[in-house]
Amino acid sequence: MRENDMLEKEEIFSKVLRAGRRTYFFDVRATKADDYYITITESKKFTEADGSFHFKKHKIYLYKEDFAAFTEILEEMTSYVLNHKGEEVISERHQKDFKKEYDSEKSEEEEVELPSTSSFTDIEFDDI
């Protein structure tokens, strides 16, 4: 097989998501047996003090036998975040110069003690 055929075969289907300093690449690729799988690559740009830059990349390989479970868990996780925190992004917390400001004066409202997150009840699925 010619080298051009192998390169063409590797780039079956691709999508790119640019998100600030991060870029996500979603690629459909083929195994040697000509079965398909997905790679998800996160590429993050880092700028040095001298103005030069480099990229750090992280890659996930996702095979067909894991698609259903992966999709189900990803949907569950994204729904959880959106249901608990909404769709608004608190972007200033991600800025290099972000400093959390604390009110030095005590609020007139009573402070409420929250239950400890270290204690929980272990429930078996059969108990439900």
Proportion of residues in β-strands: 25-35%
Helix content: 10-25%
Largest beta-sheet details: 4 strands, antiparallel
Secondary-structure element order, as H and E?
HEEEEH
Helix segment tally: 2
Q: Which residue ranges are poorly predicted, with pLDDT under 50 across at least 5 consecutive positions?
A: 102-120
Major sheet: order of its strands? 1-2-3-4
Cα shape: flat
**Helix and strand composition category:** alpha+beta
Structure explained in plain terms:
There is one protein chain. With 128 residues, this protein is an alpha+beta fold. Helices cover 21% and strands 30% of the residues. It contains two helices and four strands; from the N terminus they run H-E-E-E-E-H. Strands 1-2-3-4 form a four-stranded antiparallel beta sheet, with no helix packed on it. Strand 1 and strand 2 form a beta hairpin. The longest helix has 19 residues. About 15% of the residues have low confidence.
